[in-house]
Every structure is written in C-alpha cells, then in structure tokens.
Specification:
Blueprint lengths: L1 H36 L19 H6 L25 H19 L3 H9 L2 H5 L4 H4 L4 H23 L13 H9 L8 H8 L7 H13 L4 H8 L35 H10 L27 E3 L5 E4 L6 E4 L4 E4 L3 E3 L3 H13 L6 H12 L3 H9 L3 E3 L4 H11 L11 H15 L2 H13 L3 H25 L2
Helix pairs in contact: 3-7, 4-7, 7-9, 7-10, 10-11, 15-16
C-alpha cells in the first residue's frame, strides 16, 4: 500500500515538472520571438537627433523663470519664433541688415541668393522640428532662410568691423540683446546655410577671414591678427575684403579645421571655441591651443596675465589640471566671469548638449565647478584667488546660481576622469598620514598669509642676530 502511494506521488510530481517545463519553453519561445522582431541597435538604424532642436520640456519646467533665457527679445532667426508680433521691430531690422549684406558685401542680386538656397532647402528643413516647418512651403521657407542668414552675417560683419549702427536704427543698448538672441538654441540657423551665404562673398583667404571674424564676434581673437586678416591697417573697414572679379572661394567651416564632426550652427561653433580642442576632456589637461581675448560682450573666460600684468592668452575651459606635491597640491582652473548674461548662455549650452549627440563636456565642466561651490564662502574664496569674477551680485547669489543650473545634470563620466583620480589618491594619501595632516595644518596656520611669513622671517633674523651678538660677546 505504501509503495502504491509513493508511486502515485512520484507521477504527480513528474507531471508538475513536465507542466513547468512546457510553460518555461513557451516563455523562452516568446522571448526569442521578441528578440527577433526588435529593431537593431546599430547606429545606422537609429534615428538621428535634430541639429537645430527645441529646448527639452523638462528643462523649461526645471527652473522658475528659465523660460526668459530661451526666447529671443529682439529678432527671430529660423522658424520657431518667426512672425511673432512682439518681434515685429526685429523683422524690419533683419531686412535692412540683409540688404546691406547682399548689396554692399556681396554685390549680388537677390535672385542669386534665392536660387542658391532653394537648391538645398530640403536639407535645411531637416534641421528643424517638423511641426514648425510644415506650415511653410519651400518658397516661403527659402525667403526666410535668405533674409535671416544674410541679416545674421551682416550683423557679425558690422560688429567686428566696427561699423556705425545708426544706418540700421540699432540702439547702443540693443547690441548686447542682439548678441544674446544670436546664441539662443531655438534661434539658430543651419551652419550649412551660413556656409553657402558666405561663399557668395568674393573673398581672399576666405576660411582664415571668416575664422577670424567669428572668433572676433565670440570675443576670443587677437586684435593684431584680426587686423592682418581683414586688411584694416591703413584701409577702410571694407578694404581688403573683396577679390578682383568673380573669384569664388573654396570655403570650409571656419574654426572647425580640427573637428571631426561638421558644425551644426552658431551656438555649436561658440561652444567649440569656448571649450577648446575637442578631446572629451578625459584628462582635462591643457590643450596648448590658446586663443586671445577680444571684444567685451562675450568674454566669459578672461585672458591669462603674466607677472607684469600683460595679457598673454585666453584660458580655455579644458585648461584644468591637478598636480600633487606630496604634502600640498595645486588645482589649476581657468578664471570665469559670472554676470547677468551668463545665465542665458549657460542654460542654452546645457539645452544644446542635452538635446543633441555632442558629448556633455560643458555640462561636465559646470558640474565640476559646482562641486567646488557649496555656499557663499566658497565663492568668496574662489574670487579672492581670481578664479571667479563676480559681476552678478552677492556671493550668495552666485552660489545659488550654480546650484540652480547644475541640478539633475548628467555629466560625461569620462570628463576630467584622470584628474579626479589624482585628486582622490592625493586625499586618501593625505588623510591616511597624520604627519601630512599635521604639516598641512602647520603650513596653513603659520604660513597661510604673507604677513605670517614675514613675521617668521623677522623672528628668525632677530634670533640669528642675537646668536651673533652672543658669540662676539663671549669671544670678543
């Protein structure tokens, strides 16, 4: 009897196992089917991101009042803000600037510009969000691109060549507003468009000229080099710009010779010049590519100075290095200016990196700065040693500014990786050694300022004189 019951139990158990095995095989079959039907993860099959995207919605909702940092105040460039009634004054200004570029700089007829841009209008539309471009047919979109592109280039030329703004009815206080509007993410024009329009000028050494022009516009060019390129020494502001009779230039992407990826728009070009050589900041070391400070309105990173106070070169964001000297260490960071326009600039650079395929190098730099600033005393310390130039307000306002813009940002893990490892190793070595901690505390207490050093030197000198006097007293 007991044997029969055991056999029955074994049969039931095997039946359960069989059922479970069948269920498991069914689940496995479903998994295989899903894997076979799932789209491939290869880069060629993935949809590329827009080159002139809109600001991500979560960034707009992130910070109260951030919406003012993304919308233009005077002129619209591209389809996103085109035709808004509050920018009607800017539409008239764009027509004046576009006419100036076409007639005075290029000396061409409008038909040539229209024909040139209409041939690439499909590519230009692909830069933008489809919902914003579908309300324009190809003709209207071509006209908008020609006017906006020519107006932007004319504005850059007039700014860099020091032309008078009276003929365009531009007030002096609007110059900085115009500059701000040209570097907003949702107010960008395709760089492909700008290249085609730049080719319409008859230029000698076109790539060098436009490279110098854009760097001057960004405030990072040397005046002597700029004058050499533009032929301004002893000439009129338009002198040296034009070639003899229709010689078209083979124009590349200005300021983009060393980049592997083509430039998307003006904000992208500004970011590349602001960051310096692209290396994804693996070490954050100096690039050796120093650019010089130029115009006043965009110098977020001021120039370096030598011991005599003369300017020797402009610091770059990637010029960050760390060197351990055993007991002490030196962290070198390029100085940065914080003012009222910095907020809009930072927000748009963040939005661009978060909505495109470029590395988060600027975000990584911002997060690194934020790691050094917790409260107002940190800002005061950084300002005292010349790293932060506070033109915004109180130290507390600067600390809140960095905390606000760096909240929930996703930094590039590889940015400054080697330097962060060096800092961590130095700190571990420091805190694991009581001798190093004691010597560091001693140096900070007794040699932390020039006055304490002078006092110690004076004390040792007085002691030395006392010893000499005692010696000659004993051994006259």
């Amino acid at each position: 009897m007991a044997v029969k019951e055991a056999a029955i139990l074994m049969e039931k158990h095997q039946g359960k196992l069989g059922d479970g095995s069948c269920v498991g095989r069914k689940a496995l079959a479903i998994l295989k089917s899903k894997l076979e039907t799932s789209p491939s993860s290869s880069p060629s099959s993935s949809s590329p991101k827009l080159k002139c995207p809109k600001v991500p919605k979560r960034l707009r909702e992130k910070v109260k009042g951030a919406e003012d940092c993304y919308a233009p105040k005077l002129i619209s460039l591209g389809p996103y803000y085109h035709g808004e009634s509050r920018l009607a004054e800017g539409e008239e200004l764009k027509l004046k600037l576009a006419k100036d570029y076409i007639q005075n700089y290029c000396k061409e007829i409008v038909d040539a510009f229209y024909d040139k841009i209409s041939s690439i209008i499909t590519d230009l539309k692909d830069y933008y969000d489809e919902m914003s471009t579908k309300k324009y047919d190809d003709d209207k979109f071509t006209v908008m691109m020609v006017v906006d592109g020519c107006a932007l280039l004319s504005y850059i030329l007039n700014v860099c060549l020091g032309s008078k703004y009276g003929s365009f009815s531009i007030r002096y206080q609007d110059i900085s507003v115009l500059y701000r509007d040209t570097l907003l993410l949702e107010n960008q024009l395709p760089y492909q468009l700008l290249l085609e329009l730049m080719k319409m000028m008859r230029l000698e050494r076109a790539n060098d000229l436009w490279t110098s022009m854009f760097q001057e516009f960004f405030g990072i060019n040397d005046e002597s080099i700029f004058q050499e390129f533009m032929g301004m020494e002893g000439n009129s502001c338009h002198g040296g710009l034009f070639l003899q009779e229709s010689q078209k230039s083979n124009l590349e992407s200005p300021g983009n010779k060393s980049e592997s990826k083509p430039c998307h728009h003006l904000l992208d070009l500004f970011r590349r010049n602001f960051l310096g050589e692209e290396c994804s900041s693996s070490s954050g070391s100096q690039t050796g590519n120093e650019k010089l400070e130029g115009t006043w309105w965009s110098s977020l990173l001021p120039s370096k100075t030598d011991k005599s106070g003369g300017k020797v070169g402009r610091a770059l964001v990637r010029d960050i290095s760390f060197q351990s000297n055993g007991i002490t260490a030196c962290l070198k960071i390029p100085p940065i200016t914080i003012n009222s326009s910095t907020k809009a600039m930072f927000f748009n650079l963040i939005a661009y990196e978060m909505s495109s395929d470029v590395p988060h190098d600027f975000i990584s730099y911002l997060c690194f700065l934020d790691s050094l600033i917790d409260h107002a005393d940190d800002v005061k310390e950084l300002q005292s040693i010349g790293i932060v130039q506070n033109n915004l307000g109180t130290h507390e306002e600067v600390a809140i500014f960095f905390k606000t813009i760096s909240t929930d940002l996703e930094a590039n893990f590889h940015a400054y990786k080697d330097m962060r490892v060096k800092i961590q190793m130095h700190l571990q070595s420091h805190y694991n050694s009581r001798v190093k901690m004691w010597m560091t505390r001693c140096l900070g207490t007794y040699f932390g300022s020039p006055w304490t050093i002078i006092a110690w030197v004076g004390a040792f000198f007085a002691l030395f004189l006392t010893m000499v006097q005692t010696y000659y007293t004993v051994f006259p």
